[in-house]
Amino acid sequence: MTEAQSARTGDALRAKVADANERSRRGRGHPGAAVPPLPRCQTCWDIKRRRYRALDAGDRQEAARMAEVMGLHQREAHSE
Ligand SMILES: [Zn+2]
Question: pLDDT digit string (tens) for 6-28?
Fold first, then answer.
């Protein structure tokens, strides 16, 4: 391993450690503060997953449909 290579490996390691530190800091200090909110139920997860899969596949129609379904579901299941 050259010196440059080992320096790069060290950087990557430091970045990883800093990332882990950042995550555990966030986890302890303010619960839920910098963390995106989790979907509230299994149906939310399913719809989200389908939408992301459609986006991945480049299926914009299906993605739009899932966004609509999500809106309906949230109104029905999670309205306060
Ligand atoms: Zn839901």
Answer: 667 777 777 776 677 666 655 55
Domain ranges across the chain: 1-36, 38-80
Rounded Cα distance, 41 and 32, in Å: 17
Q: How far is the CA of 54 from the centre of ligand 1 (A)?
A: 19
CA of 62 to the centre of ligand 1 (A): 19
**pTM (global) more than 0.85:** no
CA distance 61 to 70: 14
The tens digit of pLDDT for each residue in 24-64 reads 655 555 555 566 666 679 999 999 999 999 999 999 999 99
C-alpha 68 – ligand 1 centre gap (Å): 13
Do 73 and 47 form a contact (C-beta atoms < 8 A)?
A: yes
Q: How far does residue 38's CA lie from ligand 1's centre (Å)?
A: 10
